[in-house]
Write a structure and sequence with these properties.
This is Zinc finger protein 862-like. By secondary structure, the chain is mostly helical. The protein contains 5 helices and no strands. The protein folds into 2 domains: 36 residues; 33 residues, no CATH class. It is elongated and about 65 Å long.
């Protein structure tokens, strides 16, 4: 952190007065994008849309999570009883 009073930059300058503090490139890019989005509404919408797409494809839907949990519960029950679940269900159909 580059705070003027208590950040890392200040602490390093006290120990090494000739040190030059440089932000990492990813942080510089983030600062540029955030500042640009403050003024360009369409760019802000673009990045919000990209983030929404990323979130949509990064996390499984609630329905698929429920199906996985239900499948695991059924598997656990069948293993605990010691019979094949399909055979068990077929007896009652």
């Amino acid at each position: 952190m580059s705070g003027q009073k208590g950040g890392v930059q200040t602490k390093l300058k006290q120990i090494y007065p000739y040190a030059i503090y440089i932000h990492c490139m990813a942080h510089k890019l983030n600062i540029v994008i955030v500042d640009t989005c403050k003024y360009l509404k369409y760019l802000r919408k673009l990045f919000n849309g990209l983030e929404a797409i990323y979130v949509h494809f990064s996390y499984p839907s609630k329905q698929s999570l429920k199906e996985e949990i239900d499948a695991q519960k059924n598997k656990d029950v069948a293993e605990a009883i010691g019979i094949d679940l399909c055979t068990f269900i077929c007896r009652f159909i």
